[in-house]
Each structure stands twice: as structure tokens, then as C-alpha cells.
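Lab notebook: predicted structure, single chain.

Context: the supervisor wants predicted structures on file for every construct in the current expression panel, including those that have not yet been purified. This is the next one on the list. No modifications to the sequence; it matches the entry in the shared construct table.
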Amino acid sequence: MKFSLSAVLAAAAISPVFGEVYLKEQFNDEAWTSRWTESSKWKPKAEMGTWKHTAGKWYGDAADKGIQTGEDARFYGLSAKMDKPFVSADKPLVIQYSVKHEQNLDCGGAYLKLLPGGDSFDAASFGGDSPYGVMFGPDMCGTSNKKTHVIFHSNAKDENLLIKKEVPCEDDDITHLYTLILNPDNTFEVKVDNASVRAGKLEDEFDFLPPKQIKDPDASKPADWVDQKMMPDPEDTKPAGYDDIPAEIADPDATKPEDWDDEDDGDWEPPMVDNPEYKGPWVQKKIENPDYKGPWVHPMIDNPDFKYDDEMYKVCKDGCSHVGFELWQVTTGTIFDDIIVTDSVEEAEEFAKETYFKKKDGEKDMHDKHLEEERKKAAAEMPDDYDYMGDMDGFDGMGDEF
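Prediction complete. Output recorded below exactly as produced.
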């Protein structure tokens, strides 16, 4: 069989298809607002922030835009329907998107949610109380609370389960790529910039399952169990008259002033001083308890209610049909872009090559040039006679100036 050159070239130009893509959003057209719906009924309008369509201050491609939070101290609610619902079955769930905190975020979330609801999903009312299958992405507040949220819905418990170990996130002001992989073998992996930062089994990292062992309900600490390691020394007794020793006594070295007039000044009394004989409240000495048996440990038994759940990974058991941002930010300026929901790790990796990795070096160069320009601008605005050491000309760092 012969193939024309044009057919071969056309076939080569087609991107390989590795799996099903449920949503792919790059925000590169003005029509993005027709695909996404703001949460107009979630909070009062005055509390809701507006979204900007922009590439930001630094970027790899000026025409490649994302959506940016635009007003400080506001809530942000935004959702979109996927091309088709994702139903947890025999393939992975892969969620990936990029985040850029141009404002050096001090407090606020930047996470994405995967949502059930189908045709009955109320996009206008979508908010913090709306049910979700997955909540994933960075969240920061202050210098100590910086993490990537990974929260899965448990069908067995009807609860949203937060990962027990913290997952790190990036806190600088350039774009980073966040990827979550949930596998049908009940394992998961989180990647940042395509580097793995946390991976494991769902039963180890989340409270999907009841404990394998529980305390024996029929066991109790014996009445004669001694768990007091030290005991009062029976041979140590309080000395006679110990409690009669006052804490203070009249100063034996004090004398009445010569000009003291008893009629005018009243009876003179010497000042009080600490009594050197006073030893404080008496405390009986302690000795090792000869009957000490150590701490009592409650015996454990196998939990009769324990049962392994093969379907922990089915966070979208009845189908997840939408994605959404439900956020609060104090200082805004976060840009979201390049969202993909798929059942193929390879599909997500290929999309990352076409988007994040294609743009990141150019963005970093522009970012560094911006910082250098800011530094030069600040230096130019500084007075010529400015002495950043102030009046510390004699300071040599040896500490002998003080």
C-alpha cells in the first residue's frame, strides 16, 4: 500500500491521542466568558471580585492569556461544564493546571474543584458549601501555612478527606504547574512542575478506612495496677515547728532614725526582710515506687468492622461534570491557565509540553528583566548623598564600639 507525502505529513502533524480529555481550557479567546459562569448567587455582589483576562506582567507569549483575580479582599467563584462527565472507573483521573501569583500572595487559595451535578448543577450558586469530588491546588496564609490541598470525597463515609501529610507548594511570583493523578489501584501522586512531591496509597495518606485494630472493649485497667512511678518517702517527716517559721522577719540591722518623733510619726517599726531560716512550704521527698508496673497499655484487637474498600478512588462514582474555582484572596493577582482534566497521564504531560514548558523560559527571562529594571529604578531614585549605614561609620563589626 502506498501513501502520498501529504498524507504522511498530515498524519505526523496530528498530536498523539493518549486518552479521553474531559476539559481543556487555555483562556486564549474572549469567548472564555461563555464557557465559564461566575457565582452570582453565592455571596453579595459587593463581596465578589472580578476576573481579568490577561497574560500578566511577565509571560512567555503575550497572546497566551489566563484569568486573573482582580480585587483585593474578595471572594471568587467561577465554574465551567466539562465536555463530558468523568466517571471513576478503570482509568486514572488526572487534573492539571497552572498558577502564577504575580502579587506575592500573602493569604488566599488557588485551588481547583472537580464537581458533580450534571445538568442540575447550579453554576450561579456554586460556592464553599457546594459538594465536590476533588479539591486540589495551592493555599497560603502567612509564612507558615503554605501547602497544596489534596482533598478527596469518600462515598463510604460521605465526607471530604484531607491528606494527612502536608504537600508543599511554590510561593514565588512565576508560573508553576500543578498535577494530581488518582489511580484505580487506590494510589495517587502530586506533581509540581512535573516533579513528584507526594505519592502513596490512599489508605495510608487519607482516612478512607476504619482502623484495622481497636481497643479491646472488654479490657480495662486492673484496680490494683500501679502506674505511679514515684511515691512519697514514708520515712521523710516534717520537722517539728517547721510551719512556725515566718517567711519575713524584722530587719535586725535597722535602727529607729534619730529624728523620729513617736508622737508625730507614730510607733516606729523596723522594716521586714526575708527570713534566712524560712525554706518555703514543706514538700515530702519522693522515692521510686517498688510496686510500679509502668503505664497500662490497653490491649488491641482486630476491628470487626474493618473492610478494605476497593473503590476509594471513585471520587466521581456518579460522575463529575464541572470544574470550578471557589476562592478567598486578601491580596489578589493570581493567574490561572492551561487546565486539563483527562484519564491519561501521557495526555496531561503532552499538554504540559505544549503550554507550560513551552512558555516558562521566556516568562522567567522577562520576569528577571522586570526585577532588574525595578532595582535600577529604585537605585536611580535614591539621593546621591544617601548613606545606608547612617551614623555607623565607626562600626567595624567587632562589637567594641558599644
